[in-house]
Amino acid sequence: MAKKFPANPSHPERICWGCDLYCPAKALACGNGADRTMHPLELFGEDWDSFENRLDKPLEKAHQP
């Protein structure tokens, strides 16, 4: 079972968020030359988990007579 993904970790920059291992940023177990995956908090801000309200709505199909 996968670990629960933390919504607002205190120091997201210290951990790689790319898989369920959550390795320290300087000791990645994913492989040689692996890069750290950033937490969505670092990419999108503190309200990253509420993007659903900000996404554009799909265009409705034009009504054809």
Explain the overall architecture.
The protein has 65 residues and is low in regular secondary structure. The chain has a domain at 12-48. 8% of the residues lie in helices and 0% in strands. The protein is built from one helix and no strands. It has one helix at residues 40-44. The longest helix is centred in the middle third of the chain and has 5 residues, at 40-44. The relative contact order is 0.17.
Topology overview:
Layout: H1 40-44
Biggest β-sheet strands, sense, barrel? none
Morphology call:
elongated
Can you count the beta strands?
A: 0
Mean model confidence by pLDDT: 81
Low-confidence stretches: none
Q: What is the count of helical runs?
A: 1
* Helicity, as a percent range: under 10%
Radius of gyration: 18 Å
Strand content: under 5%
Q: CA-to-CA gap between the ends? A: 51 Å
- Computed structural class: little secondary structure
